[in-house]
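Entry type: protein chain
Record version: 2
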Amino acid sequence: MRKIAPFILVLAAFGIQLSSGINYITFPLILQSQGVNNSMIGLIMSCDIFALIVFSQRISVVVKKLGVLNSIIICSVVRSVVVYFLSANHMVIGWVLGMFAYGLMTNALLVIVQTWLNLMSAGKIKGLIMGLFSSCLSLGIAMAPIAIRFIDMTSQQPFYLSSVISLLVLVVMISVISTRPSFHSDKKARIVFVFKHSKIIMLSAVVGGFCFFGLPSFLTIYGIKNGLSPENAALLLTMFMLGSVTLGLLVSTLSAFINHYQLIFVCVCLSVVCASFLSLSIYANLGVALGLLYLWGGCMGGIYALGLNVVGEQFRREDQMSANMTYTMMDAIGGVIGLCIIGTSMDWVGSEGLSYTIVVASMLYLIFVFRQLAQRFTY
């Protein structure tokens, strides 16, 4: 069982993201149908990420106190109940509170799975396992448009499907509970310590979160505003996530032969190119736009997997919970910033605000990397 446990956990991560992917598509469309503007949609959708930031110092302590089994039961059940509640909710405050609770439980589950995998995996297989984990995070979201393609997206059916998937994830994780490692943890997560010793990696997670949370929430709306049908607009998200699954896994595998930081630099540069040309290609040729999103998704998936590899190698076992928490929190911070800025920019300058903000974010990160490298060579 211990040999196949990492692959079962990867399957659980897929289920977590599949339910989230359904929600990333359904929630903004339902909110829009209720008359909520894009800025408020971005704010509401960012509440699930904001929850992780608020409670980041305590999640590892709570997991150690309650135990892994109790933690995954509570998180899975609460996720399912919250989604069911939102299916009948028409109040903005209900969406805010519901997304906050949903985000806290979802991110806690992902941190548990991520740390579990980092502690179990070792040697050459570690890169493969973390690459599969990152790929399945994207694959879950990529499969969401397909999962809901044959049901009414404006009804309560997507909510029910998401709730059921959350409970199935619980069953999958309980099946390998006997293989869980000991989760070491200090009284507080050593977030400042981890960030100080891995700034480039942690800020790459911010850029990745900016794209990974921002794009799924607004790509469908972006496509519809540019004249695509709802079905074709949903394909934009699918291609982005499929790129993350396939190309992201390839990038993670290449890290065994090429320096992690060089690969991250290349991925960010390519993401700038893809974002710059997306706004032109979507008017000219849908196939070219889908190709750009496929490459873009591969770059973002590669960045996440490479960061996980560095976290697993750079920090000792006792710091793994803190390191994984910090990495996830940086990803979440990027997501909050991305959701709010992308939503606001799309209200102010139109649909192209999505591309503009991501180009700016990526360029700022590249400037930071150049400065860090310059300081190393100087001293």
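Comment: The chain has a mean pLDDT of 79.
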